[in-house]
Design a protein that fits this description.
The protein is α/β, with parallel strands linked by helices. The protein contains 7 helices and 8 strands; from the N terminus they run βαβαβαβαββαββαα. The chain has helices at about 15-20, 45-55, 70-75, 95-105, 150-165, 195, 200-210; strands at about 1-5, 30-35, 60-65, 85, 105-110, 130-135, 170-175, 190. The model has no long low-confidence stretch (mean pLDDT about 95).
Length: about 210
């Protein structure tokens, strides 16, 4: 299981603490990108992100919680991330956006909110590289884990095994700590934010998870 670390909950000395996070024992830096439309919160534009990430080396895992999906794909593809994940609920033509991300030679993730049924994304599982299950409502950090996410993770693993869909990884995001991680054992990547970044020792928290 890999850890993708979100810096959404870091309030002070953001750039310095992103560098500390980048040098810790994580696998990806997770970018929570929000536009104030698809979700009520708004985070960073591409120019601010580029400044914040200067000097970082970890692979980037971009999660777009936005309405104008194509524009944000154009912007954030310039970071050369490993993954760009879009929301099923934000796009009319899912397959078009999947192909658009692929055209930029970036792996494609598809995310669903807690109230979206896993059945809705089954037609796209053969086309994508990552499925992101939201275990909180997207839009802000520090929320409690929604336990129904666990069954979605398990269903995705069953579907992958049944169909030999070993091209996609299962990622889960929201409310993960050293206890709720036990509900995510069939996930390949866990996104963790405040559990790590609200501590004084990032690596100590990361090692507890691992």
């Amino acid at each position: 299981m890999k850890i993708s670390a979100s810096f959404l909950s870091i309030k002070d000395n953001l750039k310095e603490n992103i560098l500390v996070l980048d040098q810790s024992n994580i696998d990806y830096l997770h970018l929570d990108i929000m536009d104030g439309k698809f979700v009520s919160n708004k985070t960073w534009d591409i120019e601010t992100i580029k400044k914040l990430l200067t000097g970082t080396n970890r692979p980037k895992d971009v999660h777009l919680m936005v309405s104008d999906v194509k524009t944000y794909i154009d912007d954030f593809s310039t970071l050369n991330p490993d993954y760009i994940t879009i929301h099923f609920e934000a796009v009319d033509d899912i397959e078009e956006m999947i192909n658009y991300i692929k055209s930029k030679h970036i792996k494609v993730g598809l995310s669903i909110k807690p109230n979206t049924d896993i059945v809705s994304i089954i037609p796209y599982l053969s086309l994508i590289d990552l499925v992101l299950i939201m275990s909180v409502e997207p839009g802000k950090g520090g929320q409690d884990f929604i336990e129904s996410a666990s069954s979605k993770i398990n269903i995705l693993k069953e579907l992958r095994d049944e169909n030999n869909y070993y091209h996609y990884v299962i990622e889960v995001d929201g409310g993960i700590n050293d206890e709720t991680i036990n509900l995510c054992r069939n996930a390949d990547i866990i996104v963790v934010g405040s559990y790590i970044t609200k501590s004084d020792n990032y690596n100590e928290q990361i090692n507890k998870l691992k």
